[in-house]
Amino acid sequence: MLDGNIDTLVIDLAGVTFLDSTGIGTLVVAKRICHSMGVKLHIRRPNPFIARLFAVVGVSDILGVPIPPGTVSGRLPQPRERGVTQPA
């Protein structure tokens, strides 16, 4: 019997072949809610298409899904700090 205390939630995407913006948004919100409640949320086994989709829309880091090699990430570059030079 569960006592209501959950420390980890795993979402297995192995059988998922299609994911739209609503599904992506739901996963991002779930990740944020879990984080605020001290629950670890792990996304497991996305197929290559879904993993690339996360990268292109810029949520790979948020969801903890590695960006597949050769995929251009949609993540926005971080702003430069004043007075700090960036290597060319």
Automatic annotation (TrEMBL):
Transmembrane segments: 6-29, 49-67
Protein name per Swiss-Prot or TrEMBL: STAS domain-containing protein
Keyword vocabulary terms for this entry: Membrane, Transmembrane, Transmembrane helix
Organism classification: Bacteria, Bacillati, Actinomycetota, Actinomycetes, Micromonosporales
Pfam families linked to this entry: STAS
Superkingdom of the source species: Bacteria
Domain STAS: 1-64
Record-linked InterPro entries: STAS_dom (IPR002645), STAS_dom_sf (IPR036513)
